[in-house]
Inverse folding.
């Protein structure tokens, strides 16, 4: 659990973060979203003490981080940045091993952990272990960046616009990976983005920021249904709202347990938007629904999507 | 042989130059006939006051000792100037390194004589002072060039300042720092010859003596060996810098295959 209490950080008299109070529950993904300069990245860097607040207290699991040696604190928190920042003189395996080595893990444990993480990020260890960063695509580099952040199994992972520099398909694939990894590993993830779609898709809760202040902190559904003010409404994008709801809501929330359907199924964890896309491309109004293991669990109809 | 060559990472050209240098040094004392043919009016056309092996070893000792001292001082100064605590001194250190290089080496040598007398020691000091300048300058340039993103990631992952310097900054700056050392060594190989004007035993000895005694044969012999030595060391550094870049994964796979 991460708690911020009346946190203020000023740059040149202006409050980059201006009296921020919020609690991020453990094992959830919290997305900070807002226009550039709103203080979302500053908030993130306050959590791992890359910058110190001028006022207020930040606690992790009840402990004031000001009392922890910064290096020790940071080794316990994963960190992913937009520019990735892989060490260009180290291969993939060495990059991933960074924090375990700083923590003096035994060699065998580090080697095993590297393979485990490459599998988790869907990179073949045989192929990628010995590659250097400049030999990887942008998407592969950021997969390694995420693996490096997760290496020492930190409870908290901070991500500062991690996919901002990637092309849309790569970006969507990695967003999917983050949701899956979060579900599998139960990390507390703090995710900064300027893209409301990304925030709504990934966040269990979304923190909307404007000029250093927190304007709304709620679930994606609440933000879509009840934007706190005109700024949030604008940011969510008035006209596209219903389409965004489709992107946020899951098939599991609308499916029926009874009934039968034929053809290509949809996963229950998929979004309603994906279900609609599949209906349109396959020309069907009813889709079978399967769970993660591939077992049939029900159906979803076109009309089920419309009940907003 | 080829396995060893690959292990050391030295190119065939470097080996060839080394062989040429050794051959030249060994053969020079026996070149009375061709030298006499080239300079018929000179009675003793082969320098014999000291053997060329002795001259090369003495010359290289001066260059290596002075450059090692310069590297320690220069790299330390460069590291200090790029730390937070040394940031105030960075412009000053940079200015000294830049202005210092505009001093002619002879002037540095002239200044060190009244302080240290004649012979090897003043030459050593003058060479070290002079060589420290490009090394300092390149260390600052190399450390400054390390990408902000990489340093940000390192800091965020929990590197201490010292670990960041040793594991990230210095390895990434090493090709540029090594280039500074290379410049310093090459300058010193040439400048060390002037040391013979104040009594140091170097490859400049035959050159200086040849000039003062109107013996162009001595000048030619000294100059040939010095030139070949400088070219060989330059190639040697080329190989070392390339190996450092390859080792640090800073080259593309194409260049890797070509190298």
């Amino acid at each position: 659990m991460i708690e911020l209490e009346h946190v203020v950080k000023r740059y040149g008299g202006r409050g980059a973060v201006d009296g921020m109070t919020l609690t991020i529950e453990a094992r959830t993904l919290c997305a900070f979203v807002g226009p550039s300069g709103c203080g979302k990245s500053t908030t993130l860097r306050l959590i791992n003490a890359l910058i110190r607040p001028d006022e207020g207290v930040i606690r992790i699991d009840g402990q004031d981080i000001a009392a922890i040696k910064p290096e020790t604190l940071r080794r316990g928190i994963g960190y992913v940045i937009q520019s990735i920042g892989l060490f260009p003189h180290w291969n993939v395996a060495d990059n991933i091993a960074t924090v375990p080595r700083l923590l003096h893990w035994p060699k065998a444990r580090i080697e095993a952990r590297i393979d485990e993480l490459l599998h988790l990020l869907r990179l073949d260890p045989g192929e990628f272990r010995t590659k250097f960063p400049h030999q990887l695509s942008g998407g592969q580099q950021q997969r390694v960046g995420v693996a490096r952040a997760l290496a020492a199994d930190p409870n908290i992972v901070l991500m500062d616009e991690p996919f901002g520099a990637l092309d849309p398909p790569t970006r969507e694939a990695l967003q999917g990976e983050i949701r899956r990894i979060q579900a599998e590993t139960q990390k507390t993830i703090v995710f900064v983005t300027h893209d409301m779609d990304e925030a709504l898709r990934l966040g269990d809760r979304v923190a909307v920021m404007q000029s250093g202040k927190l304007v709304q902190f709620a679930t994606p559904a609440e933000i879509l249904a009840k934007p706190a003010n005109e700024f949030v409404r604008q940011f969510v994008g008035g006209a596209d709202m219903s389409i965004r709801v489709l992107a946020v809501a899951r098939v599991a929330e609308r499916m029926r347990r009874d009934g039968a359907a034929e053809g290509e199924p949809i996963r229950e964890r998929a979004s309603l938007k994906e279900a609609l896309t599949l209906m349109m491309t396959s020309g069907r109004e009813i889709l079978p629904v399967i769970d993660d293991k591939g077992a049939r669990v029900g159906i979803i109809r076109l009309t089920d999507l419309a009940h907003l | 042989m080829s396995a060893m060559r690959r292990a050391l990472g030295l190119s065939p050209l470097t080996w060839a130059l080394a062989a040429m240098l050794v051959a030249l040094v060994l053969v020079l004392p026996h070149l009375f006939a061709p030298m006499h043919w080239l300079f018929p009016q000179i009675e003793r056309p082969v320098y014999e006051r000291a053997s060329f092996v002795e001259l090369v070893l003495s010359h290289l000792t001066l260059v290596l000792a002075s450059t090692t001292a310069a590297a320690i001082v220069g790299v330390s100064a460069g590291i200090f100037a790029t730390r937070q605590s040394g940031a105030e001194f960075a412009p000053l250190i940079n200015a000294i390194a830049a202005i210092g290089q505009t001093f002619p080496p002879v002037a540095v040598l002239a200044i060190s004589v009244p302080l240290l007398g004649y012979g090897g020691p003043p030459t050593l000091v003058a060479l070290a002072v002079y060589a420290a300048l490009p090394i300092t300058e390149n260390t600052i340039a190399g450390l400054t060039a390390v990408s902000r993103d990489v340093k940000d990631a390192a800091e965020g992952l929990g590197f201490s300042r010292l670990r960041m310097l040793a594991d990230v900054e210095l390895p990434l700056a090493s090709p540029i720092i090594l280039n500074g050392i290379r410049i310093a060594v090459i300058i010193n190989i040439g400048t060390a010859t002037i040391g013979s004007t104040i009594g140091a035993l170097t490859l400049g000895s035959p050159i200086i003596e040849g000039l003062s005694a109107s013996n162009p044969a001595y000048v030619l012999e000294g100059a040939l060996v010095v030139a070949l030595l400088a070219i060989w060391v330059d190639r040697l550094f080329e190989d070392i810098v390339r190996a450092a870049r390859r080792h640090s994964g800073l080259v593309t796979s194409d260049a890797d295959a070509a190298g």
Summary: The interface with chain B takes residues 48, 50, 70-76, 79, 81, 83-91, 98-99, 102, 132-135, 145, 148-149, 158 of chain A (CB under 8 Å). Residues 141 and 224 of chain A are 33 Å apart (CA to CA). The mean pLDDT of chain A is 90.
